[in-house]
């Protein structure tokens, strides 16, 4: 649905973005991340046609943004960081005004607006002046204007900035519900929000792409291995030895309170053992581990993969000292 190829934007001698390439599939929600000044807003403005590029191409729904600007704008709903609201208008008047400038026929406006108002939960403030509604409702009005016209693509720049925790959850759920019917690019500094809403993330730094993958995939790539947390009831040393002998296991360490205790060499009473099992990136040892513990009569109480958090990934990829490693990750994307 969105194809960005070799996109570059120069401001005189200053570089906004350089040779940026990525794509977004139809119905996908893509997280677009980067530190302040990385080029996120510049990229989104170019995609929406608000800003010209120095070089490169952008296609939306098959149309070139620069050669067919009107066709692409008809297919895009844009919510900038500061929603373009007219505070002296009512919510009703503003949404009708947006329908008019988007060219939505009068015969369709009432029903279309009603659906958007319901989707965005604007019923309680529909007749009120925009200047008299809360920040959360203002953000919802901004999202509603982006949805008018039923665009194929939504570009959302910091849609939850300045909202309280309850409002953030409400907007997050609304955005998630829009996935599938709309292709969405979501920029946000709230990284757990991106992890919960987005299937893939693009991370840029200093105007360049440094990574593109699922949040989990980025964590595994940066770690260079997979990490499995396993809680077993059994004799500690024997459990560690059996797990460590499995094919694909690099190392096994004991976590929590058990880590500081002396080794159990007498095979005494069984207790709970929490292990951190590091495996080869391509190895999935869960089945073999399950059967080995069952064979020994040691029940598995917990088993789950543990990946680097998106915050860890973001910091590693956007810290100057890690740029060389980040470039290697991007090359493998």
Task: Summarize the structure in words.
This protein is of the alpha/beta class and 333 residues long. The protein folds into two domains: 2-220, Rossmann fold; 224-305, Alpha-Beta Plaits (2-Layer Sandwich), CATH 3.30.70.1340. Helices cover 36% and strands 27% of the residues. It contains twelve helices and 14 strands. The strands form three sheets. A six-stranded mixed sheet has the order 6-7-8-3-9-10, with helices on both faces. Helix 4 (106-120) packs across helix 5. The protein is elongated, with a radius of gyration of 25 Å. It starts with a strand and ends with a helix.
| CATH fold name of the largest domain | Rossmann fold
Number of helices: 12
Strands side by side in the biggest sheet: 6-7-8-3-9-10
Total strand segments: 14
What is the share of helical residues?
A: 25-40%
Number of structural domains: 2
Question: Which series of helices and strands comes N to C?
Answer: EEEHEEHEHHHEHEHEEHEHEEHEHH
Distance between the termini: 19 Å
Largest sheet: 6 strands, mixed
Characteristic key phrases:
333 residues; Rossmann fold; 2 domains; four-stranded antiparallel sheet; 27% strand
Task: Give the topology.
Blueprint: E1 2-11, E2 14-24, E3 29-33, H1 40-47, E4 55-60, E5 63-64, H2 69-74, E6 76-79, H3 91-101, H4 106-120, H5 135-147, E7 153-157, H6 165-178, E8 183-187, H7 191-197, E9 200-205, E10 208-213, H8 215-223, E11 226-234, H9 236-244, E12 249-254, E13 271-279, H10 286-296, E14 300-305, H11 310-318, H12 323-331
Parallel strand pairs: 3-8, 3-9, 6-7, 7-8
Antiparallel strand pairs: 1-2, 1-4, 4-5, 9-10, 11-13, 11-14, 12-13
Helix pairs in contact: 3-4, 4-5
């Amino acid at each position: 649905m969105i194809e960005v190829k070799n996109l570059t934007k120069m401001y005189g001698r200053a570089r906004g973005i350089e040779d940026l390439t990525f794509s977004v599939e139809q119905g996908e929600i893509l997280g677009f991340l980067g530190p302040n000044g990385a080029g996120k807003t510049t990229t989104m403005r170019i995609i929406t046609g608000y800003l010209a590029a120095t070089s490169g191409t952008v296609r939306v729904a098959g149309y070139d943004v620069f050669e067919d600007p009107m066709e692409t704008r008809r297919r895009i709903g844009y919510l900038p960081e500061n929603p373009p609201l007219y505070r002296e208008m009512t919510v009703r008047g503003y949404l009708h005004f947006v329908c008019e400038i988007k060219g939505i026929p009068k015969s369709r406006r009432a029903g279309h607006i009603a659906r958007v108002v319901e989707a965005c939960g604007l019923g309680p403030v529909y007749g009120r002046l925009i200047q008299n509604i809360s920040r959360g409702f203002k953000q919802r009005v901004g999202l509603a204007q982006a949805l008018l016209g039923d665009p194929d693509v939504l570009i959302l720049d910091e849609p939850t900035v300045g909202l309280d925790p309850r409002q953030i959850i409400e907007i997050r759920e609304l955005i998630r519900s829009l996935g599938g019917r709309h292709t969405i690019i979501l920029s946000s500094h709230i990284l757990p929000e991106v992890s919960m809403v987005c299937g893939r993330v693009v991370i840029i730094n200093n105007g360049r792409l440094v990574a593109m993958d699922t949040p989990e995939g980025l964590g595994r790539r940066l770690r260079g291995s997979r990490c499995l947390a396993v809680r077993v009831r059994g004799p500690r040393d024997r459990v560690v030895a059996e797990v460590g002998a499995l094919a694909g296991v690099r190392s096994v360490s004991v976590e929590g309170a058990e880590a500081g205790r002396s080794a159990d060499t007498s095979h005494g009473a069984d207790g709970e053992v929490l292990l951190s099992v590091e495996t080869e990136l391509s190895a999935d040892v869960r089945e073999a581990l399950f059967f080995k513990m069952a064979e020994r009569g040691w029940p598995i109480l917990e088993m789950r993969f543990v990946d680097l958090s998106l915050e860890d990934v973001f910091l590693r990829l956007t810290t100057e000292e890690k740029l060389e490693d980040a470039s290697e990750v991007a090359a493998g994307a």
